[in-house]
């Protein structure tokens, strides 16, 4: 009996120790384990494949592909383009992010109506194709460090405008982007919130989008991600391609200098 009791106590103590060790695992570590388990089957791969097909297929009124599209590194060059956007483009006289630049190419090369695409809701029609194309382009720069150019005067202006927008408070809750992402150690529900006023690290913040959202089964581009932030701040949605969105992306992208892209990522 004594031996049996001793064995039982040893088992119970062992279980208690294991439970304590498990309890010491942080929420962040648990979420990271969850993401790791999903990475091998990331549905973003399907959007990437669709985007590559759209890039190479002749479409639109002009029956042309996008293989001559200049994303900033020369016509047809995809690798490394994503981690240098937004940037200034001389042909449009504007600073453009990836999505607006893709629509410019779709209009110039394929004959699509850029204004009509911009007014199409996310996930529908040609806007869904833009998201797939952005996923493909982003994937071609996976693992590369962000290095947005700041040599042109307008690139510097967009960075400063994005900085002001990041800290601008407003809406019914008097929120700003900085309310959630302006300092260390903040969390909402189970999600750690990165400090986006500086380089948050590889694959964090700007360096993780486009991403597949498991919670709603959708592929989210960076513009949709920013629009949802505005929704949570109780701001009105900016129009697609709005200068405010490009400015915010410029601010976040420049701050992410040196961080390696993991896009297309997978998110909760």
- CATH superfamily name? Cytochrome c-like domain
Give the strand tally.
Answer: 7
Strand order of the largest sheet: 6-5-7
- Total separate domains: 1
Structural class: mainly alpha
Order of SSEs, N→C?
A: HHHEEHHHHHEEEEHHE
List the total number of helices.
10
CATH architecture classification? Orthogonal Bundle
User: On the 0-100 scale, what is the average pLDDT?
Assistant: 88
Largest sheet: 3 strands, mixed
Could you tell me the radius of gyration in angstroms? 22 Å
Strand content: 5-15%
List keywords for this structure.
268 residues; mainly alpha; Cytochrome Bc1 Complex, Chain D, domain 2; two-stranded antiparallel sheet; 10 helices; globular; disordered N terminus
Write the layout of secondary structure elements.
Blueprint: H1 2-23, H2 27-39, H3 44-56, E1 87-89, E2 94-96, H4 98-110, H5 114-118, H6 125-139, H7 153-167, H8 177-181, E3 186-188, E4 191-193, E5 211-213, E6 218-220, H9 222-232, H10 243-255, E7 265-267
Parallel strand pairs: 5-7
Antiparallel strand pairs: 1-2, 3-4, 5-6
Helix pairs in contact: 3-6, 4-6, 7-10, 9-10
Would you give an account of this structure?
- The protein has helices spanning 2-23, 27-39, 44-56, 98-110, 114-118, 125-139, 153-167, 177-181, 222-232, 243-255; strands at residues 87-89, 94-96, 186-188, 191-193, 211-213, 218-220, 265-267.
- It is mainly alpha-helical.
- The chain has one domain (42-267): Cytochrome c-like domain (Cytochrome Bc1 Complex, Chain D, domain 2), CATH 1.10.760.
- The strands form three sheets. It has a three-stranded mixed sheet with strand order 6-5-7.
- It is globular and about 55 Å long.
- Residues 1-9 have low confidence and may be disordered.
């Amino acid at each position: 009996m004594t031996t049996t009791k001793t064995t039982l106590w040893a088992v119970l103590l062992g279980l208690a120790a294991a439970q304590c060790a498990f309890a010491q695992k942080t929420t962040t570590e648990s979420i990271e384990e969850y993401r790791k388990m999903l990475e091998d089957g990331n549905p973003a791969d399907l959007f990437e494949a669709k985007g590559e097909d759209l890039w190479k297929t002749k479409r639109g009124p002009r029956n042309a592909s996008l293989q001559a599209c200049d994303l900033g590194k020369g016509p047809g060059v995809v690798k490394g383009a994503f981690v240098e956007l937004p940037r200034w483009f001389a042909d449009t006289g504007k600073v453009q992010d990836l999505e607006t630049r893709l629509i410019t190419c779709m209009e110039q090369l394929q004959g699509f109506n850029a204004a009509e695409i911009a007014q199409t809701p996310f996930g529908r029609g040609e806007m869904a194709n833009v998201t797939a194309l952005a996923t493909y382009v982003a994937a071609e720069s996976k693992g590369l460090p962000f290095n947005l150019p700041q040599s042109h005067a307008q690139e510097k202006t967009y960075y400063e405008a994005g900085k002001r927008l990041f800290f601008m408070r407003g809406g019914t809750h008097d929120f700003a982007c900085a309310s959630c992402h302006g300092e260390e150690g903040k969390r909402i529900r189970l999600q750690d919130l990165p400090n986006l006023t500086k380089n948050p690290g590889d694959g964090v913040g700007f360096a993780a989008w486009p991403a597949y959202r498991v919670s709603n089964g959708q592929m989210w581009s960076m513009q949709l991600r920013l629009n949802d932030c505005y929704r949570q701040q109780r701001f009105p949605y900016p129009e697609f391609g709005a200068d405010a969105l490009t400015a915010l992306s410029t601010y976040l992208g420049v701050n992410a200098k040196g961080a390696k892209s993991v896009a297309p990522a997978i998110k909760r």
